Amino acid sequence: MRVRSPVSSWCYDRASRSMGCQNTWSFNSTALRFSDADNKLAVVGCSALAYIGSKDGDVENRYVVGCHAQCASRASLPADGAPCNGTGCCLTPVQPGISYFDVAFDDRYNSTAVAGFSPCGYAVLVEEAAFQFRANYVTTGALMDDAAGTRLSAVLDWAVGNQTCRDVQRKNTTAYACLSANSECVDLANGPTGYLCNCSKGYQGNPYILGGCQDINKCEVKGKYPCQIVDTCINTMGGYKCPCPAHKRGTPDEKCEDYKSGTLWQIVVGVSIGVVMLALGTSCTYAIQEKRRLALIKSRHFRQHGRLLLFEEMKKSISKQGVSFTLFTRQELQEATGDFDERHLRRRAPRASHVPDDEKSLAASFLSAARESRLDDLLDERINSEVGAEALVRVAKLAKMCLEMSGERRPSMREVAKELDRIRKISSS
To answer: Fewer CB atoms near the end CB (10 Å): N or C, the chain?
Structure first.
């Protein structure tokens, strides 16, 4: 708010030929503060130094601001409207949050020596934009006359209390002044404490009373229709919407456009590619998981049926005699033999013309050779020379038992392991 700003003065008394009493003004308010953004301290005269002292709590003159105006003669005064640069007039900023101050003149600077053309010194806290220097402010009492009228004004900021929004909301909610539901607290920029209440965006009214802030119908604001397309505005609490008409895309705030077939086709293609990629990814993930699951099942079955134990016993039994061996997978054997081509066999068991067709398999050949005591024909020369005959006979017998068709007559894997262990002990003794 703007108020008329009173002027403090200190003049030379021609009757007493000395400086008279200082006519100063002070200000004190709890709700109003001089705006530091709009006001400045102005000092006018040819030998005047004035200052304002503000109060901080119980500390007097905590902040002091002043400036000095001087001039040598009437002729040295600047023209009307000239900036206040210290000759005849000076301006200085004030600190924020001034709710109390008083004005004083420095006794060392007075109008005694210049009383012939500048009998008084003046000080006023004034709105900078409303103040314009005039030469007769120095030489006459025109400044006091303007102050008595409406030409000199000051700007005051209003604030609620001397607390911040955070303090009042946290410590004393009963004193909180923002009563409307659709209001918000704003800390005062002019000073460290004090706050104001504003209606929230999209609302208007009085934030200091219950229900004081009401929704603004943005679709009915005269001369300010928010949407580019007429009759598309939808008012909402504290806001509005501007949907595009049917078969159009975009926002009326910017631009609504017709859907283009090319754009629709691009969307369809993009979605299709996304679905295909998702399906491929899912299939690959499933295949990898199935492969791992089958490998685990094979390993578990291998252990459950004692084959790992048999494998270890075979290694122990044969390694004791310095013979090494390797187990090959079917795929490795198929690649090594050229898809089981008999031409790649290192040695074949001799076959008599009287061998029946059902004995042409490896198992049948072994059984036939065991019955006819011709195992030497099936075994490698190195095995024949390094392994004892008794061990070979026992191993052949064990193999023959394992080839029994009847499950009841076949030995278990544990029995096979025990027998191999006995064979190993016999061979090593």
So the answer is: C
CA 239-243-249 angle, to 5 degrees, is 140
Picking from 118, 147, 141, 87, the residue whose alpha carbon sits closest to that of residue 19 is 118
> Which runs of E-coded beta strand occur in 224-322?
234-236, 239-241, 248-251, 255-258
The beta strand positions in 20-99, using DSSP E, are: 26-28, 32-34, 39-44, 47-56, 59-70, 89-93
d(CA 113, CA 99): 36
pTM assigned to the model: 0.50
| pLDDT tens digits for range 363-411 | 666 667 767 766 666 666 666 666 666 777 777 777 777 777 666 777 7
CA distances from 303 to 32, 299, 337 (A): 92, 6, 29
**Model confidence over 19-73: pLDDT tens digits?**
999 998 888 877 788 888 899 999 999 999 999 887 655 555 566 889 999 999 9
Do residues 216 and 204 make contact, with C-beta atoms less than 8 angstroms apart? yes
pLDDT at 421 over 90: no
Burial class (CB in 10 A: 0-12, 13-18, 19+), 149: exposed
Burial class (CB in 10 A: 0-12, 13-18, 19+), 178: buried
The single-letter DSSP state of residue 344 is G
Looking at residue 232, what DSSP letter applies? Answer: -
- Which of 427, 371, 374 is closest to 403 using CA atoms? 371
pLDDT at residue 347, rounded to an integer: 47
**C-alpha–C-alpha distance, residues 35 and 3, integer Å:** 12
In the three-class reduction of DSSP (H, G, I as helix; E, B as strand; rest coil), residue 107 is classed as coil
Cα separation, 294 vs 239, in Å, equals 61
Q: For residue 393, give Cα distances in angstroms to 104, 385, 417, 420.
A: 131, 14, 16, 12
What's at 168, amino acid-wise?
A: V
